[in-house]
Amino acid sequence: MALQLMKLFVSASTDTEVTPTVEKFFYVAVADTEPGDTLTIDAADFFDDLGAEVVELPELAENNSYYHLYINGVLQMQDISTYTPGATGVGSLSIEVPAGPDSILAGTPIVLEVVNFDTSSTTDITT
Prior knowledge:
Blueprint: E1 11-28, E2 38-42, E3 56-57, E4 65-71, E5 74-75, E6 81-84, E7 86-87, E8 92-96, E9 109-126
Antiparallel strand pairs: 1-9, 2-8, 3-7, 4-5, 4-9, 6-8
């Protein structure tokens, strides 16, 4: 018999499931915020989809989440806001109104959307 290379035969397949968790938080500005000023909204000042007061803003899963900020129904650039998860007095959203002619007027709706992804994988190995 001729020499031959002997090696293991291994086959593997991985199934990954990604499940998003989407949470929306709503706020209506109570006063004007002028260009150059910062509007900080505490967690308790938001209300949820059912109109209930929010107790805590959720953590953002590291490298597996994001948040969107809508002011008056328009998606905003990420760098004008700072999101801090946590309960009342800790959790907040700060919006730095850029210099220019535009203010956030009293009565303006502000929507915060937080998306976290939960992933699970299973790998089957056949030898």
